[in-house]
Write a structure and sequence with these properties.
The complex is a heterodimer of chains A (265) and B (302). Chain A is mainly α and 265 residues long. Chain A has helices at 2-29, 46-53, 55-88, 95-107, 110-123, 130-155, 158-166, 171-200, 203-208, 216-224, 230-254, 260-264. Chain B has one domain: Orthogonal Bundle (MetI-like fold). Chain B is globular. Chain B is mostly helical and 302 residues long. The chains are: A mainly alpha (265), B mainly alpha (302).
Chain lengths: 265, 302
């Protein structure tokens, strides 16, 4: 069985090198004093220092963080309502339509969703900017939040809530006092999933935002089109580190529970 | 349900329902409508199709102004036809390569010691959470003519002149395989991890060689995971914009990119909307299959 064991380890190692190699090389390059990818000019943090001067990039980062926090909060609240409706209300007349509409954006090509949202904003007479960006992000991330929360509410034993009601709690009281604390870790993962999806999104943001509200991915994208630069490597590394930190915290918060990503497949 | 809670229930269902109706269903109906109108030099830049103020008479007269022009021009315009065919071809090839890369990886993780498995699969899908744009961008520095891959190959004297990978369809395939690998790994891993090891032992006891065990037990039993993974990669890959835009060349035609250019550079809303509708029509089969696969995996009708 030694050969099998070796082959298994080699497959796992090769897989992780492929997954993480490009990201680690990018992070290493952000500390390279030389502008050339293939030349190591010594360790340097000058590209990070250059970022501090780049007010356009900092503004974009602030807008992205604000939009992500706000849209993730809306998405989690809407997702919780939708998940409760789908798991607790039994059959209702247009449940299939609701279920389909909630799940369709998960698999819809981003360009189609972005174009549709933009057309709607123009038709509704809404000026494109921060508000439309938040609405667009809340719309597509609420679908992911709903899937995570539906899984959580399904795995929760309804007998606990029934017991609370037998002891005199109202159905609403039983839900808030019993069910909600039990699914709290999933609320955290739903929020974080919505937050990171919003923070990373380029395509839907490009369609739905206006001149005053350029997001970080849009800013990075316009720089990337001009070529590989150490400043972009630096901001990318910071963003990867930030998402890594959020992910680490969420792993701690949910302590080994299946992650949001696992619920999606 | 008791009557006094029905208002609360209506609110809980009504709020997300209204939101999804206004910001998803209505917009989708709107682009279907725009795809049937002509481009116009106005704001919004298309001729109105219907409006509630028209009344029935107005509605009937507007029906006559509906046009399939935006769709018809696709038949004539090689650009669109080539974009669709190329998107489907690149997505199909990428899906196959992703499957071939992911399968041994997922299998190895599923057969790892039980306590290591959650950490391994967690690390394998973690990149799903990090920026898509940045992960694609990371490959530019690797694939360029003066990039790291060429540099390494030349230093090893495997090649004499740099390979042109960047700005080709090959680079797009590499980008898709890399970016969508977590989507393939997760369903494959869960299908493989669930398999009872006794089945393989039984096959081996009955005289099957390791290759036969794999081909006749492991592989058929992981079919659901293979189908789910392929759909999760193929569907978004067809409409992909970022990867062909950053890694592909000017001759890399993919429908997501063509739609984007039509919209942002040419300001042609009806064409872009029609392109979106055709893209959805192409994907409707895979989308229905994906939905069915998910419902099957959930094991209950919902």
């Amino acid at each position: 069985m030694r050969g099998v064991d070796l082959a298994r380890r080699a497959a796992i190692a090769a897989g992780f090198v492929f997954l993480y190699g490009p990201i680690l090389i990018l992070a290493a390059m952000s500390f390279n004093a030389s502008k050339l990818v293939t030349v190591w000019g010594g360790f340097s943090t000058k590209w990070y220092l250059a970022l501090i001067e780049d007010t356009a990039m900092l503004d974009a980062a602030r807008i992205s963080l604000e939009a992500a926090a706000l849209s993730a909060a809306i998405a989690t609240a809407l997702g919780l309502c939708a998940a409760v409706s789908l798991t607790r209300f039994g059959e209702f007349g247009t449940r299939t339509v609701f279920f389909g509409a909630i799940h369709a954006p998960l698999v819809m090509p981003e360009v189609v969703l972005g174009l549709a949202l933009l057309s709607a904003f123009v038709a509704f007479g809404m000026e494109r900017g921060f508000a439309t960006l938040v609405i667009a992000h809340a719309t597509f991330t609420m679908c992911f939040a709903t899937v995570v929360l539906v899984a959580a509410l399904r795995s929760f034993d309804p007998a606990l809530e029934e017991a609370a009601q037998d002891l005199g709690a109202t159905p609403f009281g039983a839900f808030v006092l019993v069910a909600l604390p039990c699914v709290a870790p999933s609320l955290v993962s739903a929020f974080l999933l919505a937050f990171t999806l919003s923070l990373d999104d380029l395509v839907i943001a490009s369609f739905s935002t206006g001149p005053g509200a350029t997001t970080l991915p849009m800013r990075i994208y316009s720089q990337v089109r001009l070529g590989v630069t150490p400043e972009v490597n630096a901001i990318s590394t910071l963003l990867l580190a930030f998402v890594g930190l959020v992910l680490g915290l969420s792993a701690l918060a949910t302590r080994g529970r299946p992650s949001g990503a696992a619920d999606l497949a | 349900m008791p009557k006094r809670f029905s208002l609360a229930r209506r609110l809980v269902l009504g709020v997300p329902y209204l939101w999804i109706a206004v910001f998803f269903l209505a917009p989708m109906a709107l682009i279907a409508k725009i795809s049937l109108s002509r481009p116009a030099q106005a704001r919004p830049p298309y001729e109105p199709v219907f409006s509630l103020s028209d009344g029935v008479g107005g509605f009937l007269s507007k029906i006559q102004t509906l046009t399939f022009e935006a769709y018809r021009s696709f038949g004539e315009d090689r650009l669109y036809l080539d974009s669709y065919l190329n998107s489907l071809a690149i997505a199909a090839i990428s899906t196959l390569v992703t499957l071939l890369v992911a399968y041994p990886f997922a299998l190895a993780m599923a057969r790892a010691p039980a306590r290591a498995r959650p950490i391994l699969i967690g690390l394998a899908v973690a990149p799903f959470w990090t920026s898509f744009l940045i992960r694609v961008y990371a490959w530019i520095a690797l694939l360029k003519d003066e990039g790291l891959v060429n540099h390494a190959l030349m230093a090893l004297h495997l090649i004499d002149a740099p390979l042109s990978i960047y700005a080709t369809n090959l680079a797009v395939v590499i980008g898709i395989v890399y970016s969508y690998l977590p989507f393939m790994l997760l369903p494959l891993y869960s299908a493989l991890e669930r398999q009872d090891p006794l089945l393989r032992e039984a096959a081996a006891d009955l005289g099957a060689s390791p290759a036969q065990v794999f081909l006749r037990v492991t592989l058929p039993l992981s079919r659901a995971g293979v189908v789910a993974g392929c759909l999760l990669v193929f569907i978004p890959a067809v409409g992909e914009f970022v990867i062909p835009d950053l890694l592909g060349g000017s001759d890399t035609l993919m429908i997501g990119k063509t739609l984007w250019t039509d919209f942002f550079a040419n300001r042609d809303w009806p064409s872009a909307s029609a392109a979106a509708m055709i893209l959805l029509a192409l994907l409707i089969g895979p989308l229905v299959l994906a939905e069915r696969a998910r419902l099957g995996a959930e094991g209950r009708p919902s």
